[in-house]
Design a protein that fits this description.
It is a single chain. This protein has 358 residues and is α+β, with helices and mostly antiparallel strands. The protein folds into two domains: 152 residues, Rossmann fold (3-Layer(aba) Sandwich), CATH 3.40.50.300; 106 residues, OB fold (Dihydrolipoamide Acetyltransferase, E2P) (Beta Barrel), CATH 2.40.50. Helix content is 22%, strand content 36%. It is built from eight helices and 21 strands. The strands form four sheets. It has a six-stranded mixed beta sheet with strand order 6-7-8-3-9-10, with helices on both faces. Strands 11, 12, 13, 14, 20 and 21 form a six-stranded antiparallel beta sheet that branches. It has a five-stranded antiparallel beta sheet with strand order 15-19-16-17-18, with no helix packed on it. β1 and β2 form a beta hairpin. α3 packs across α4. The longest helix has 17 residues. The structure holds adenosine-5'-triphosphate (ATP).
């Protein structure tokens, strides 16, 4: 049932040989939710999925699916008895079997034909049932892999960077399409990726992973606008960090007083995302003068890098995203900030919360 915790992972620990990989990882995925674990290469994402799937043992903690303990570091339910589907990076289809036989593999004979038909329909591959994997495009192969994983009606589907081998355009198309397919099937799924765009396109919940732990899990919107620290802020996108002094109800910055995302009084660093800064030709109240140092057309917008005038407690570079064509490199402009600014812990500025408003 949607809203009920389907998968519960508590204090999970795991190692490869003597090297610890997961060091007390917590994650909850509600039934019917599409969750994404986002983290850099090597942080332990695949290991996490492999433990949930039953291919790798936990050394501590607990993995529970619908109240049933799958692994508590001592006893483990066998992978084939977990009712969990797994789609690896390369799809791993059986090369000598047709598409239909790949999807129907392991299904009870009685409803195999019907279920294969449903799955082909779901992933939009009607008419390709008799082909072999080598006669399919990369995207079609991944759709077959998804259909094969969904065919036995798993309680949970695990996707390990399933779009990594595809080119950029196909990746974008397929991740949106597969998210829609999973939603229409009411599936509960976890996708692991190091690609933030993929996480945004796919997930209801993003869990940011760092060095064997989940450091923050929330909706994409909440994570983007209210990350807990600088590392999480940068994992979700570009960020402008400013020094701020706490004032009643506001943070005083080089851009003047800005409202905060929380009702905390905050002395330290605050974050503004690039779309919260605006370039104007004329100075105005609380504007900061800056010189355009670089710009990049990205199709949907322009990314502009600017060097603010020194001596204002600002970073060397600020980043602005704008729909309008940017001024030439070297042009002096004035920057205006739009709140709310978000208080952020950073390594250099472990900022202090002064008081929390009642
Ligand atoms: N079979 C293995 N034997 C020994 N060490 C391993 C093994 N598999 C993974 N590791 C190590 O465990 C750590 C986590 O690996 P894992 O594959 O889980 O990370 P990941 O976040 O999925 O990385 P990527 O995004 O590159 O796939 C890495 O340091 C890796 O080198």
């Amino acid at each position: 049932m949607a809203g009920q915790p389907g998968l519960l992972i508590n204090r999970l620990e795991a190692a490869h040989g003597r090297s610890p990989v997961l060091t007390g990882l917590d994650l909850t995925v509600e039934d019917g939710a599409l969750a994404c674990v986002l983290g850099p290469s090597g942080c332990g994402k695949s290991t996490l999925l492999r433990i949930v799937a039953g291919f790798h043992p936990a050394t501590g903690g607990r993995v529970t699916l619908h109240g049933r303990t799958l692994d508590d570091g001592r006893t483990r339910v066998a992978a084939e008895r977990r009712h969990i589907g797994y789609v690896p990076q390369d799809g791993a289809l059986f090369p000598h079997l047709t598409v239909a036989a790949n999807i129907g593999f392991g299904l009870p004979r009685a409803d195999r034909r019907e279920r294969v038909g449903e799955m082909l329909d779901l992933v939009g591959l009607d008419g390709l049932a008799d082909r072999h994997p080598h006669q399919l495009s990369g995207g079609q192969q991944q759709r077959v892999a998804l259909a094969r994983a969904l065919a036995p009606r798993p309680q949970l589907l695990l996707l390990d960077e399933p779009f990594a081998a595809l080119d950029a355009a196909l990746r974008t198309e397929l991740r949106t399409e597969i998210a829609a397919t999973l939603r229409s099937a009411g599936a509960t799924a976890i996708l692991v990726t190091h690609d933030v765009d993929e996480a945004f396109a796919f997930a209801d919940t993003i869990a940011v992973m760092r060095a064997g732990r989940i450091v923050q899990a929330d909706t994409p919107d909440a994570l983007y606008h209210r990350p807990a620290d600088e590392g999480i802020a940068r994992a979700l996108g570009e960020a402008n960090l400013l020094l701020a002094k706490a004032t009643e109800g506001y943070a005083t910055t080089a851009f003047g007083p800005l409202p905060l995302t929380t009702d905390t009084r905050w002395d330290g660093v605050v974050m503004l995302r690039p779309h919260q800064l605006r370039m104007t030709p004329e100075p105005g109240p609380h504007t900061v003068q800056a010189r355009v140092t670089a710009h990049l057309f990205r199709g949907h917008d322009h990314r502009v890098e600017l060097a603010p005038d020194p001596g204002r407690d600002l970073p060397e570079h600020l980043v602005v995203y704008t729909d309008a064509a940017p001024p030439a490199i070297g042009t002096q402009v004035h920057l205006q900030a739009q709140g709310p600014a978000h208080p952020l812990r950073t390594e250099d500025h472990p900022a202090q919360t002064l008081t929390v408003a009642p």
